[in-house]
Structure formats: C-alpha cells, structure tokens
Design goal:
The structure is a single chain. The longest helix has about 35 residues. A four-stranded antiparallel sheet has the order 1-2-6-5. The protein has a two-stranded antiparallel sheet with strand order 3-4. Helix 3 packs across helix 6. Helix content is about 50%, strand content about 15%.
C-alpha cells in the first residue's frame, strides 16, 4: 500500500508494460483528485467560519493575508524577469494542476485563458456545495457584498481569492498585468452553461 502510483508507473515503463504504465499514469491523477477537492472544501469552510464570526469583510482580509504571505513572493520573483512570459507558463501550470478545462488564445497585447470548467470554484457550483444551492450539506459561504473583491456580485467565499490575487493585489504591488472576470459555469441544478471564467495576462503592465 505504500508504493505510489508514480513508482508503479516508472516500474511498468522500465519493463515495457505499456498497458500497466497507462493505468498507473491515470492513477497518479485519480489519487490526487479527492485530496484536491477536500482542500478546496476546507478553504471554503475556513472562510465560512470567518464570515459567520467576523463578517464578510474579514473573508477578504484573510485572502489578502494569505496572498501577501504566499502569492506575492512568487509573483514578485516573476516580475524580476522583466516580462510576463514566465507568469503565463506558471499560470497555465496552476490551471492544469487544478484540473481545469481551459483554452488559451494570444494577441499582440495579452494572453487570454478561458476556463470552461474550473475544477475548484466551478466544482463547488457543479456539486451544489455553496450555501445558495441547497443541494449539498457542506454549505460554503456566499459573500453578498458587492465590491471589486467579489466581482460586484454574490460570490463563493472560496472564489474571493481570485479578484484579490489576480487583479487587486498585483495592482497594489506595482505589477498591473492581470484582468479576470467571473462566469458561473453551472446553473442552479449543476448543469453546465456556457459562462466561463476568463483571465487575461497582459504583456506590458497597464500602469
């Protein structure tokens, strides 16, 4: 039980067992998904606890705190490269690791990521885990405050990190290269709709 799917995959490759290598390659992905989804649920429930005891503004505050400690050092290191090329690659890596289904286009001004399915916030909407759904007992907080940090609409407490980390904070830190927008992706019954989230990374800072 202690042998990882990665080790099994490598062993299958070494003995030229293509079928087993493919099975274990899929297992590498499948083993991670429940843990990934648990972390998303945990993050949302931490924010729900904070909202219930300290109010909605405190949810923005905690995502700001985490952004300052975790995201800012990463982002500022990429800023030192003098372009957004590395940021585009790292952002795509993040989306792939989450399990998003997304498409990418590029023009002279920016790179555009269209999230047809977000495997974190979108997963919460699909599975009815936000409190405005009533389809799941988890009931993650939905923030009602209309502000830039909620895309000016009701927003899952989990998703609050996106306008903060992708738009507001980078701008405050002096690297205004992001622009993001929210799409619900699923209707009230968890059926997919053509309303993707979109993130744009500009090649040159806008201010």
């Amino acid at each position: 039980m202690s042998v990882t799917a990665l080790d099994k995959c490598k062993a299958a490759i070494e003995r030229d067992d293509r079928a087993e290598a493919l099975r274990q390659a899929q297992a590498i992905w499948d083993e991670w998904r429940p843990l990934h989804d648990l972390y998303v649920d945990m993050s949302g429930l931490f924010c729900t606890y904070i909202r219930d005891r300290l109010g909605e503004e405190a949810v923005a505050d905690v995502w700001r705190f985490i952004g300052e400690r975790l995201w800012k050092p990463i982002l500022m290191q990429m800023k030192k490269t003098g372009s957004t090329d590395l940021l585009v690659q790292v952002y795509a890596q993040f989306l792939r690791a989450h399990g998003h289904r997304f498409s990418v286009t590029e023009d002279d001004e920016k790179t555009i990521f269209v999230m047809h399915y977000c495997a974190s916030g979108g997963m919460l909407m699909r599975d009815g885990k936000n409190e405005d759904s009533g389809r799941h007992p988890v009931n993650i907080a939905v923030i009602k405050t209309k502000a830039e940090w909620t895309f000016h609409q009701p927003l899952s407490a989990y998703c609050v990190h996106t306008p903060l980390w992708m738009d507001i904070l980078p701008r405050e830190w002096g690297w205004d290269v992001f622009e993001s927008s929210f799409g619900r992706q699923f209707d009230d019954d968890g059926q997919p709709v053509d309303e993707p989230c979109v993130a744009m990374i500009y090649k040159q800072p806008r201010s």
